[in-house]
Amino acid sequence: MPVAQTGWMDMGGRAERRFEAVREAFRQVLAGQAGTGAAVAAWWDGAWVVDLWGGPADAAGTRPWRADSLVQPYSVSKPFAGVCALVLVDRGQLELDAPVQRWLVSWSGVPTGAGRGVSCARRSAGRWAWTSLSGSPQPSGPGPLT
Question: What are the sequence ranges of the domains in the chain?
Fold first, then answer.
């Protein structure tokens, strides 16, 4: 059950003076959203200029969000992984039309459904893996953080 918001939220961290608008916007987000807290950080010109966190770290509101709270990033990591992949493409080290198992060997035997034979992921080109259209299996529950 989500935590009811009261309009006030505990917040920690720092923001350089010239980024106080980011601190204020983040404070408003924390005060206005239901559920768990959040964190935001910004790197500018070779240095951290914003590093803020706040709100509860769990849906029950029993743990505060801290600087080292672990979270599931979901799709926020996709652009970063995509840029890395495109750098490898540019260097000739990754072919987007090559079968996925050429560079991700563990996909070579992943089943996508009972009785379907060769998995969709096994036949998929790398470009489909990067667009989440490869037919790869979805986890059924939380897994270990590595």
Answer: 11-66, 76-130
